[in-house]
What we know:
heterodimer, A: Beta-lactamase, 6-stranded mixed sheet, 5-stranded antiparallel sheet, 26 helices, elongated, B: 21 helices, globular
Amino acid sequence: xxxxxxxxxxxxxxxxxxxxxxxxxxxxxxxxxxxxxxxxxxxxxxxxxxxxxxxxxxxxxxxxxxxxxxxxxxxxxxxxxxxxxxxxxxxxxxxxxxxxxxxxxxxxxxxxxxxxxxxxxxxxxxxxxxxxxxxxxxxxxxxxxxxxxxxxxxxxxxxxxxxxxxxxxxxxxxxxxxxxxxxxxxxxxxxxxxxxxxxxxxxxxxxxxxxxxxxxxxxxxxxxxxxxxxxxxxxxxxxxxxxxxxxxxxxxxxxxxxxxxxxxxxxxxxxxxxxxxxxxxxxxxxxxxxxxxxxxxxxxxxxxxxxxxxxxxxxxxxxxxxxxxxxxxxxxxxxxxxxxxxxxxxxxxxxxxxxxxxxxxxxxxxxxxxxxxxxxxxxxxxxxxxxxxxxxxxxxxxxxxxxxxxxxxxxxxxxxxxxxxxxxxxxxxxxxxxxxxxxxxxxxxxxxxxxxxxxxxxxxxxxxxxxxxxxxxxxxxxxxxxxxxxxxxxxxxxxxxxxxxxxxxxxxxxxxxxxxxxxxxxxxxxxxxxxxxxxxxxxxxxxxxxxxxxxxxxxxxxxxxxxxxxxxxxxxxxxxxxxxxxxxxxxxxxxxxxxxxxxxxxxxxxxxxxxxxxxxxxxxxxxxxxxxxxxxxxxxxxxxxxxxxxxxxxxxxxxxxxxxxxxxxxxxxxxxxxxxxxxxxxxxxxxxxxxxxxxxxxx
Amino acid sequence: xxxxxxxxxxxxxxxxxxxxxxxxxxxxxxxxxxxxxxxxxxxxxxxxxxxxxxxxxxxxxxxxxxxxxxxxxxxxxxxxxxxxxxxxxxxxxxxxxxxxxxxxxxxxxxxxxxxxxxxxxxxxxxxxxxxxxxxxxxxxxxxxxxxxxxxxxxxxxxxxxxxxxxxxxxxxxxxxxxxxxxxxxxxxxxxxxxxxxxxxxxxxxxxxxxxxxxxxxxxxxxxxxxxxxxxxxxxxxxxxxxxxxxxxxxxxxxxxxxxxxxxxxxxxxxxxxxxxxxxxxxxxxxxxxxxxxxxxxxxxxxxxxxxxxxxxxxxxxxxxxxxxxxxxxxxxxxxxxxxxxxxxxxxxxxxxxxxxxxxxxxxxxxxxxxxxxxxxxxxxxxxxxxxxxxxxxxxxxxxxxxxxxxxxxxxxxxxxxxxxxxxxxxxxxxxxxxxxxxxxxxxxx
Lengths: 699, 445
């Protein structure tokens, strides 16, 4: 009977076959056509753990590590494993209260679940770490995790070495997403400039995680892993003892000290005052100290040696003499009848400290006696040189010389944030004087004043050119890189080129100037810089300066400038010392420079110098107006904060402090576009701008 | 070959036996790959009944003993006891209601000491036998509607009980017996209607309610227009079309929403919708609001299938290798030793391995159909088709669900999934067939 249904067996087989073909087709689609699943499975199960390389070490000229790595500890917690601990005891040890304890545990749970570890307290102090290690057996679920940290063993050279910080989104974007959130990157100093060398190369370890995100082992026995390559060391010219000494001398002073080796351009020491301990920026209190220093109006984080602009004053005179001698407008025996004033421009300025006859009878004497009239006149002779036909052209020639001396240009030192300095071109004077100006308009340029602004590094480098009779090497810190490769050589090549910029100036000119500078030490204003058996050549400088505070133009004590090199024959060191508001060049700058030269050349100090070190390091020359300025800036910021966010926490302090006296920014603030430059600056906590403004002498 | 005991081995279809052993071996390998943890002492744990693969191996040994026992049984025993066994099966199914254990998500398991019995699982053997018995009765005239209804009743009664035990997946298996009935003369029309209803339900899921209603109406109007001459001659054509239209729209507008709101659980609705790749409409979630609190979070609904697809897809052409399959080894796929065991094969052995497994299964099914067609007795043939139908349903639905073609229904993959009951059930199903086939020249009643 059922035989007539036999054909249906074929239909049933067909149904089976169709179902299987559909499934096979879907399998083909999933496994062969659609390629994304492999990656999805990898993302699920493989965790690429980044292995951070050890950062490169920085050494001084004697091979001492001046920036090294150390390890600090984070206290981790796995909340699920915290059982039966004496919470009170634990809190007492960590000096937190129980509410805080509960909060942190809850945070850890929310962040990483209860079964995975999270940071309970980051960057333990050495004290806490020791306490915890002693008692760790009492606290299951808590343990320490190593975390590498930068350490500055000599507590010195903060501005030179710089610091590292977590990369911000901008850094990450700039690096083409090489860096990731949480990576550290050099933010200033050598740490930033040599980031590529110091950073090393990250490694990756592929770990397997399971469905609860727990790590359970190596993926494929680590065949895809790459090892981390440690960052390479930097061998620098820095003499760390010299650096420490110089920093000691600059305590409580605003200014800069730079010492160069004229033969190589190597920077032996570079100090900016006020200074800070670089270790303050790492470790547990790093961010606290960072914000404190950022808001400090004295600007401890600003490297004044490369970014602080000062009028060189009389220290500029040797350069003025060299330019004039090379231009042929004077000869080494050229004399100027100075009577104590420069009268040829009609206003009897500038005045001169000497009035005796013959104090400027030739170049050598004029330098030794630092005659203002002589150099004002020499400047005029140079720019009014009939050869160029007109003051504008003559001025451009003179300016070009300055640029060749490294003034008004970036030298290209291996630090970020170098300032160009200020040597304006003629158009600035055109603008100011409606196009009518003569060499009399800016004749004080000849004595390093007017609108001229230089950094200590630029002046030290200019001294190198004088000492070397015409050439220099770009000032730099790093002599060589460990395991130097091609990219490093390219990076370093610019420091190995000899710049023979002014070798065209005749030897006789250099002789006259150098002898003059030598006389300054022997008989002149820098007698304080005399060192037995070493022929020092120096030039002092004193620059007037003013600031504007509370709407008044205040005359501040003069800046003390001092430049020198030694020994006279075969010079080995060139130094520039700028001390802000310290008085005459010789009083503070001279001894500081002398001590540095002594230390570097003799490695020991004379009795007299040791006494000087003591005296100078104890002297507090911080300008008094900073206190008022700090108050003003803080209160202005607090006021702005209150205005913008209606949050009175910051301004309260000022209101209470000044009962009776109104806070500085009581007046209703003008819209920014109507403010004067001064008012805008007062509102800006940005130190860099503030400083540029403060050091700008408005005359 | 000569020294085999002729009493047992005579007439046995060895090809099926070899396929059976091959599948169980593949299953053991897959379970091993899915559950092996780094550093396990393989042989020790194998012998000590500690791990899933050793348990499965011992179940295999028990299955072989049972198979031997079945091969020694007289074929007449099965015809003789078919109805009795069916009654016993129904009885155990009913026993579940007062005696079921508290295992999550199901009320279908009886605990007896260390063993869990799931009557709904092994009852299909009895249904298969009873249906074969009924269809092979000389007095049964299957062309009559009454006989067809009785046969359907025999097959679907356990299904109703299974649904009442919240085992919708297992219940669906019983629908596969329509294949047997089709072979025995169930009008093709019913099959066509079945497929049409299925297509209509799928359309209901994918399309907007009223869009579909308009489309159906348009089809009805078009059909009437095409048949306008016949309709003129015969009024009943018009009525038929109208009736069909009413039924379709009724299913689509009322029946499906009714089932989704009141019969199925919310997680089942979610699984069905995730298969067609759509969000569950708000009217259904609202209707189930009371349960939602206890159900899994909505986001996790398609987690299984997503992970399963990742596992299989990442296998690519040749797979990652036995123990290198990260998805399955590190527990990303839930239920990977039981219902989602196919992932292990897909990930570890790739398209090649999966395809070979499919081919083996297809070979098994075709072989069973061939065997069925060579039987002299109707009983044996019906039983063989029953076995083929049950296997087909399990294989097709299980694999289809792992690759995202079918909603997630918790049914095992025959001979491969971990689980003693399912291995024993499938072994019994298959070896009764082998026994019957050995006596294919006999006419069994």
